[in-house]
Design brief:
- The chain has one helix and twelve strands; from the N terminus they run H-E-E-E-E-E-E-E-E-E-E-E-E.
- By secondary structure, the protein is mainly β.
- About 17% of the residues have low confidence.
Length: 148
Amino acid sequence: MSFRATVESMSKIMDEMGITELELERQFLFGVYRKHIHLSKQQATAVAMPNFPVATESKNTNSEPSEKVLNGYALKSPMVGVAYLAPEPGAKPFTTVGAQIKAGDTVALIEAMKTFNPIKSDKDGVVKEILVSDGQAVEFDQPIIVIE
């Protein structure tokens, strides 16, 4: 079993059992390896995400949920992390609502594993909506900015 599969399996079991902390210890010939792991989940109510696509009940007969449609092109997060809308605290934001942007322009940073990753627009257009706030946690494939 791969390391990733092992971690995913352990995470699922911990989630099912309500366990949030795990202490690992492995003895080797020349010492002991100890690791304390604390898992935490974000509460959906803790983060306000206006205009984020959500499943709604469908009135059609196929009983599949439909998603709220964003008007325009949604630039999505390529990773899980923390979104920043400016290069540093107190600095001018990368973009604002109504601003004209070009493909390749940096519109945000996402911090993942202590690395700041620039998020660049892949389309020319006008910023219609900014869907995240500065310092907000984002998920993979979560819409960040709407471009029209």
